Amino acid sequence: MKDCIYSDMDKLNEVRDTGKRAVPCTPSPRSLPLDKQPREKLIRSGPAALSDQELLAVLLNAGIQGKNVTVLARELQECLDREKEIPSVKELCLIAGVGKAKACSVVAMLELGRRRWGAAGTRIKHPQDIYGLIHHHANRRQERFICLSLNGAHEVLAVRIVTVGLVNRTIVHPREVYADPILDRASAVIVAHNHPSGHLFPSPEDDEITGRLKSAAEILGLHLLDHVIFSETSYFSYRQSGKL
Length: 244
Prior knowledge:
Layout: H1 38-45, H2 52-60, H3 69-82, H4 89-92, H5 100-117, H6 127-134, E1 144-150, E2 156-164, H7 174-183, E3 188-194, H8 204-220, E4 223-230, E5 235-237, H9 238-241
Parallel strand pairs: 3-4
Antiparallel strand pairs: 1-2, 1-3, 4-5
Helix pairs in contact: 2-3
């Protein structure tokens, strides 16, 4: 059994790009070998083996003329990544190829998943627990900066994407990171971001951002419990490495 590195000593009392770019031709799932097609992969290996985009492709089932289901699933994934909460049917219908029926199916699926298997209530004892909640973002082509709100018992209140794009001091500002945890009445916060390159060791800029967030958290009466950098295969924890 893994040790709890977030000990009781760390707890606090409850307190208060858009621009057009060329998109390469994306093959339809039906053009892939049978064992690579999302639906067959789901039947053979289970849902955990599929990426978010593949799961959405299964849910959408078909694309439209001029836009196959893989492209449509990617656009839907990008939309969901930008949203902090479950988007409305009206918002999803703004994506060409997502009509009311598909939008209703997606929103209903997301809400049912949130109710039954959402991250809320998960107790964080070790960086591996964090990685389990966020690792599905690791295959994104852009960096996602993610914030987890925790209560005094280190149970997850919410997991949100704060920014999408290059992580730097301009984009990752303490007010953007801590706005929602304050509304959540969180006691502690964990931040994380993926490195699409796969390299896990933090950069000097990562260290600077972590320091600024730690200082701001102390002023706000929050506790920055950890900053996790992750890839598709592993993660780096500031707390576990002794850098926080």
